[in-house]
Amino acid sequence: MTELELLVDFHKDAERQGPGSSFETMKALNLIGVDKNYKLEIADIGCGTGAHTIVLAQNTNGQITAVDLFPEFLGKLDSKAKELGLHNRITTLKKSMNDLPFDNEEFDIIWSEGAIYNMGFETGIKQWKSYLKTGGYLAVSEISWTTNSRPKEVEEHWNNEYPQIDTVSNKIRILEKNGYMPVAHFILPEYCWIDNYYKPIENRFATFLEKYKNSELAKNLVDLEKEEIKIYKKYKDYYSYGFYIAKKI
Ligand code: SAH
């Protein structure tokens, strides 16, 4: 098994593959102020197993195209959608987020939680803009510095992991620069990380290591996750996901 296959296997049984919550998804949706009677076209990019995709389907009258690179994640979302009778409203699509088969101005809303970093925030919002109708909304969560300065250790850690990490005000500036009107933003609170993401991860360590008989690759993956959790717990005042809601003008 490759490192990537292990990573997908480790995350596929989780409810979510990044920090977030149904409450915060609803908060973002309410800030857009969607008309429940209107049949919206929504793209959910980098959906993973789609915890938020389900929330979007349950709280809009939308038709949702949920995109991810990994069929293992999409399969989980398909099953959940079927169980809940939402399969007619959610179509999964195995595609890379930087090679999407969408038409110009196809969508009313482009949603993406904890995933745009895979292509980089600015490249992502630029490319995806063409798929959005004028007057349509982008709702995207992106790791961001929550203060003006921070200790060197955390700065180095994240600059190494994701050099595009930046302050909230700079993320908003990038939206403005690229023809979006920033409508609202908020910061994901701690429980989105600890209770909804890191605790379930920690609970899977033992069975995962057992499954792979303590292989070096498996141990390495667990160590990396542990390191990330340690950094979060120590420096959570300095960074989080910012949820950005912006309108294409
Ligand atoms: N939105 C989900 C998953 C976030 S994790 C949640 O909040 O729970 C990031 C997701 O992006 C993963 O599901 C991963 O498979 C997906 N991903 C990574 N690179 C991608 C790419 N190039 N194209 C599409 N999806 C990608």
Topology:
Elements: H1 3-12, H2 22-32, E1 41-45, H3 51-59, E2 63-68, H4 71-83, E3 90-94, E4 107-112, H5 121-129, E5 132-145, H6 152-161, E6 166-167, H7 168-177, E7 180-187, H8 190-211, H9 216-235, E8 239-248
Parallel strand pairs: 1-2, 1-4, 2-3, 4-5, 5-6
Antiparallel strand pairs: 5-8, 7-8
Helix pairs in contact: 2-3, 8-9
Provide structural commentary.
This protein has about 250 residues and is α/β, with parallel strands linked by helices. It has a single domain, classed as Vaccinia Virus protein VP39 (Rossmann fold, 3-Layer(aba) Sandwich). Helices cover about 45% and strands about 20% of the residues. Strands 1, 2, 3, 4, 5, 6, 7 and 8 form an 8-stranded mixed beta sheet that branches. Helix 3 (about 50-60) links the parallel strand 1 and strand 2 (about 65-70). Helix 2 (about 20-30) packs across helix 3 (about 50-60) and helix 8 packs antiparallel against helix 9. It is globular and about 50 Å long. The mean pLDDT is about 95. The chain binds S-adenosyl-L-homocysteine. S-adenosyl-L-homocysteine (SAH) binds near residues 16, 17, 96, 113 and 118.
